[in-house]
Design goal:
Arc Repressor Mutant, subunit A; 3 domains; two-stranded antiparallel ribbon; 13 helices; alpha/beta; seven-stranded mixed beta sheet; 11 strands; D-Maltodextrin-Binding Protein, domain 2
């Protein structure tokens, strides 16, 4: 009997997750459906693939021997899925872009321009701290600071993001210390929680605050921007977003050494797909044009010049 790839996908998910319920959630099917497919695979192979133990599903010797073969089939299926899009001879379809929240601020503000340039492309933006798995088509393109280690991925440097200290108009007007070095001692500060101390500018800020605690802690850069904008206190923000916000005042020059270098990452099987290639070219051109502002170049207007 010919094996059904959907049955093998369930087998792989159960082997990785250790339970039918978790495998069903991962595959976005019902638990009874996952159970039926697993039983169908065991029947077709005339072998029991898992021991149902209290701690979960554990592969039997037959299951263990099938696992590397199923993983190889999975890799082949993923390769076919990635390459099938390259058959198309028109720039059309959906391109999924995975991006962090700071760059999401940059990209979403320029979506009308991208749509005008690529009218037949549907752009999906997924905002996440986690690196999407390009081999499994969780995304077509990734914009991230970290460089990929997985084989088959290609990265191109897009540009460097600069950061500075900002406060709202009202907060700065009511806090004279905000315009000088006493700001670190006398002002209220907003920043990231401990889990996100690796975010740009956070360690730099904590060093200057010393024993002084952050009064507001968040886990999202866009939330931090809104908190500072609301007047809760000062914060370190990406210059391209904060300089464009008329409610914010830049209080320092671009902070030396506090940068975020962004890369455009694509799987080598997708870089020649016409739609993906078109979005890549548009993103590269966009970042090149905006390079000065992204790096924290001269802000627009006197109200946003450094103190």
């Amino acid at each position: 009997m010919a094996l059904n790839w959907d049955d093998l996908r369930v087998f792989l998910a159960v082997a990785r997750e250790g339970s039918l319920s978790a495998a069903a959630r991962r595959l976005k099917v019902t638990q009874p459906t996952a159970g039926r497919r697993l039983r169908a695979l065991e029947d077709s192979l005339s072998a029991r693939l898992f021991d149902r133990l209290p701690q979960g599903f554990v592969p039997t010797p037959a299951g263990a021997s099938l696992l590397p073969l199923a993983e190889e089939m999975e890799r082949s299926a993923e390769a076919v899925e990635r390459r099938q899009a390259s058959i198309a001879d028109r720039v059309k379809g959906t391109v999924r872009v995975s991006i962090g929240e700071v760059m999401a601020q940059f990209l979403t503000a320029r979506l009308p321009e991208l749509r005008a340039r690529l009218p037949e492309i549907e752009i999906e933006i997924s905002v996440s701290h986690l690196l999407a798995n390009l081999s499994r088509r969780e995304a077509d393109l990734v914009i991230r600071e970290c460089l990929p280690e997985s084989p088959g991925l290609i990265a191109r440097r897009l540009g460097e993001i600069g950061f500075a200290v900002y406060g709202s108009r009202d907060y700065v007007a009511g806090s004279p210390a905000a315009r000088g070095e006493a700001r670190y001692r006398d002002c209220v500060w907003a920043g990231f929680d401990e889990e996100h101390n690796y975010f740009p500018g956070q360690r730099w800020l904590l060093e200057r605050l010393g024993d002084k605690a952050l009064s507001v802690r968040v886990n999202d850069a866009m939330v931090l921007h809104e908190a500072v904008r609301s007047g809760v206190g000062l914060g370190v923000l990406a210059c391209f977003a904060a300089d464009a916000d008329p409610d914010l005042i830049r209080l320092t020059p671009t902070i030396p050494g506090v940068t975020s270098v962004q890369h455009l990452i694509v799987h080598r099987d997708l870089r020649r797909v016409l739609g993906v290639r078109a979005v890549m070219d548009a993103l590269v051109a966009l970042f090149e044009r905006e390079a000065v502002d992204l790096a924290g170049g001269a802000p627009v207007g006197d109200v946003r010049r450094t103190a």
